[in-house]
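[INFO] parsing input record for Lipocalin-like domain-containing protein
[DEBUG] input buffer:
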Amino acid sequence: MKNVFKILGVFVLLFTAFSLSSCRDDDDPADNDFFAGTYKGSVSYTDSDNNISTDNGEVFVTKIASGTKYNFRFSNGIPELNGLEFQKQGDNTLVMVNSNALVYVRIDNNELKMIYTVDGKTWRANCTR
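[DEBUG] output buffer:
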């Protein structure tokens, strides 16, 4: 019985090692149905009452279940952007769908570049992963 537990333990250990090694930072958010990743770098937000800017900020990006909608959670008290819908155009370029906002978002496995302006509010990010 001890041998069975030893063999089972080895299989669990190998499975765990394999599973952890398959989680990489080079996952491309434009190519995956589900994605979560943290980008670090310059982030800012401005509106009529706020002007927040830092070179040491973070943006946590998630691609939610629909496969076309993204959430952007910023550090430093910057409001989140949730449920933004994009479609892929070309290699790793996401274009916003049905938007009345001024938007430029380029996201891939290594970097996030964003300018998003709507209703007098502007979010910016120039980050890497």
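[INFO] The beta strands are 35-46, 51-63, 69-74, 81-89, 93-96, 102-107, 111-118, 121-128.
[INFO] shutting down worker
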